[in-house]
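Pasting as-is:
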Amino acid sequence: MYQYSNFDHEFVAQRVAQFSAQVARRLDGSLSEEEFKPLRLMNGLYLQLHAYMLRVAIPYGTLNSRQMDQLAMIAERWDKGYGHFTTRQNIQFNWPKLEDVPDILQALADVEMHAIQTSGNTIRNVTADHFAGAAADEIADPRPIAELIRQWSTDHPEFQFLPRKFKIAVTGSPHDRAVTQAHDIGLRMTEQNGMRGFEVIVGGGLGRTPMIGKTLSSFVPLEDLLPYLEAVVSTYNLLGRRDNKYKARIKITTHEHGVAEIKQRVDAQFAKIKPMFFGADLQLLKDIERYFEPPKLKPANAPACAGQTVAQTTAFRAWLDTNISAHKVPGYAIVSVSLKKPGATPGDASAAQMRALAQIARNFGHDTIRISHEQNVILPYVHLADLPQVYQALRQANLATPNIGLISDIIACPGMDYCALATARSIPVAQQIATRFEELKLEHDIGPLKLKISGCINACGHHHVGHIGILGLEKAGVESYQITLGGDAGAEAEIGTRAGPGFGTDEIVPAIERLILGYLHLRADENESFLAAYRRLGLAPFKALLYPETKKAA
């Protein structure tokens, strides 16, 4: 993974010192909260319902064990003993005291981490495929490109006050695991005539006006990518609306002007910008690439590590079935660690669990950890022979839940338990659904299913692109939960369709249960997934399951 240069260390140190002085001025009353707000947001510090929240960047979702250990220390020393991993490959600490934040930022800087540009109308944390560098289906590791974009966008003088926040996602695989079509810019690696480049997608986004991104260019050569991105963002910076924050995202700009006009403007801007780069970006990319060489892996037939082995139990086989993915290197596997044990808060990890993950990565995972946008943890380099030991270590840390991709592997935002913007609770609904289907013992019979929950219209839980999406809203002082069906975050991305009226707090879990039990009868056979069945049959039979009273009345 990338290691800080002297410049990086100095840059982050200066930001920590600067913000420390700003915090001191806020504490002594020299700065009002209104004056302090833009300063804290530049450093990832929010004021939530009950306390400040610090959002820490995990660029393209990559960590090492030392960094994970430091996050555990921060959780114990300055928070309540846990951290929350988000759909933006960040970690959030929900309970820091303002006077402690400078010390937290210094502790992050000590392990080459920061909270810069995790908020504000800037280019946010660049996200990537969490299997990057290890996936059997990828063209190449996209993380060097993501790091190049991170360096280019950090403190970029032209892009610190964009019309609205701006998010970029990168994938090196045709099987999109980075939700590229729901980002302001999505980059999909591709090849053309032996030359590597990217399809550039713009104008995706969820929130109150969900849109799937549109292809701006089917192929931008690698050597042109950075100036092309600068042309896109600078075009948006000029055209994007600043009169209405709800219409300020690039998705609205693209919709209002049309993709053809946006492309014409971007191409003209690119022609001006390209000669100004002089190849320095390509030299920087070469320097970056050396940090992303794959680790020295053991032979495919290497013996298992010494230590206790786990018997071929039903639980272990279930874990192998759901939590293991194909690796590009024979003899290796990608291990997904679920942070979604039924009854737990999706995405939360205790300090003890973070330390356990760090130790497992040191012992069995070539000191490499990834965070997925689905709020889980990935060990991308685990030898097949070591899987029993990894499973045993995860069990001891209460992290061996075998549910990746199943109905209890729920994405959920913090909702009204924490967020000042939320209008309904997300966490209790996720907990109740997961617990109910654990009781029914149906998860593996149901098969692959993406259920996603948001506690407000901002859609941080990605409900629009869930096979089943749940949106919590407040109506006349009561929480109401709308259901959308048929969304998809993959290569064939699609916005889900609202099924009908919302359900009350005590109605939403029974509604989901009716829906799933009905699906089991509707599917063509046990191999037809929920999404495939929905696409084959359409909304009507699923709507009838959700609203049986309407069917009777008709």
